[in-house]
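Need residues for this backbone.
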């Protein structure tokens, strides 16, 4: 089986929207910054107390080890949280054949334009209304719900009138 080139794989794509990862990264990265800062201060204190001494001070060695451990833990926390948050595949894809919706690790759902009855904003979230179900869309970065709703409605109108979404 030959690999599919990106040009063929995304030939039907018109627009993609993804959630904003900054809010989900703020807390772990703040904790990582605090860990690295506290660890750096503890390690510096330990090094300062040990500097120029011939005998080893147990408290200074403990501060040095704890400080270096906190610095390493803070860096690991920052990288691990970035990998965890940024690996999320949640997205809304406007395609020529419909709207592609993916929530977290679930399979992507393609809602064909022919099945879409309306696009509405309820309680600050965009929802696709189809024949029997409602498909809530995730909040997306760089576009508020009203704008996303209007873009989806415009694309839906174009498809219904037979106007191509891509040239």
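Answer:
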């Amino acid at each position: 089986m030959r690999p599919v080139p990106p040009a063929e794989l995304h030939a039907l794509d018109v627009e993609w929207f993804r959630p904003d990862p900054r809010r989900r990264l703020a807390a772990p990265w703040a904790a990582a910054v605090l860990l690295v800062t506290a660890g750096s201060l503890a390690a510096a204190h330990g090094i300062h107390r040990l500097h120029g001494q011939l005998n080893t001070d147990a408290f200074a060695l403990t501060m040095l080890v704890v400080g270096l451990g906190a610095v390493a833990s803070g860096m690991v926390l920052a990288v691990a949280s970035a990998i965890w948050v940024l690996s999320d595949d949640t997205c809304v894809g406007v395609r020529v054949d419909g709207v592609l919706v993916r929530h977290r690790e679930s399979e992507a759902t393609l809602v064909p334009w022919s099945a879409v009855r309306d696009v509405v904003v309820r309680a600050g979230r965009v929802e696709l209304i189809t024949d029997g179900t409602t498909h809530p869309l995730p909040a997306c970065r760089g576009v508020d719900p009203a704008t996303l709703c209007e873009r989806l409605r415009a694309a839906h109108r174009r498809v219904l009138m037979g106007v191509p979404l891509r040239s």
